[in-house]
Design brief:
Blueprint (H helix, E strand, L loop, with lengths): L1 E8 L5 E13 L2 E12 H17 L3 H8 L12 H13 L2 H12 L5 H14 L4 H6 L15 H13 L1 H16 L5 E10 L23 E9 L4 E8 L4 H16 L5 E3 L7 H5 L1
Parallel strand pairs: 4-7
Antiparallel strand pairs: 1-2, 2-3, 4-5, 5-6
Helix pairs in contact: 5-7
Length: about 280
Amino acid sequence: MFVRKKTFTNKDGTTREYLQLVESYRVNGRSRQRVIANLGRLEELQDGQLDRLIENLTRFSETQWVRMNLDETQASWSKQWGPALIFHNLWEEKLGLGPCVRRILNRTEKTSPFEEALFAMVLNRLCDPLSKLGLNERWLQSVYHPPLEKLQLHHFYHALDFVAEYKDEIESFLFNRVRNLFNCELDLVFWDTTSTYFEGSGPEELAKYGYSKDKRPDRLQIMIGLLMTKEGIPVAHHIFPGNTADVRTFKAAFSDLRRRFNVTRVIMVGDRGMVSNKVLQE
């Protein structure tokens, strides 16, 4: 069905135009057309009647009704909802980090919104990594997840202290959960370290001068070690004073692996800087 403009010529040579509602159909395989309705003379319809007719017809079409009303629609705000929705399912159901953090909080009777702050920081790492200040001042306003609305800047820093205090328990829980999800075997692990430096003084017990992998021996630094499975899944991380030799980090990682993850036989892969006769004997 379609609208057709029909033109007629008057005796004086002038023309008049009409609008017709026409239907196509087939007879014996041939296309035919018939007039369903004569809508009227075009110049008269253009004097407002046509607009009213279209508006009335629009009420019976959901698609056209939405299009007609778009100009009158104004958004008061817009936020991202999808990333928070998907990650919340991973956080709660797949990884179980939410229940894990809540169990620790219930045991310690801490009342700060640590879980919400940790959720926000991890989600920000996945979506648009920013500093804690940038996360608080800009990113939070772009995400729709009501539990995050009460967070303030100091909650993120306090949440990091909470994670540092219960790091071993959270890492052990998370790895056991991931091992079940992905059928990981802890028969081959990789260990490596890097350094990162402070522009300021840093924490006194950790910030030391040492061999800088950032080529900044003039800055106080710390050493960071990461233990990973052969599939590339992180198992644990460790922080050492900036003047710690790689050999010492290797021994600490190996001892922690045996203590926390109940491993009896492991092949460890490291570079020459991590190996010594004493380490090999151990």
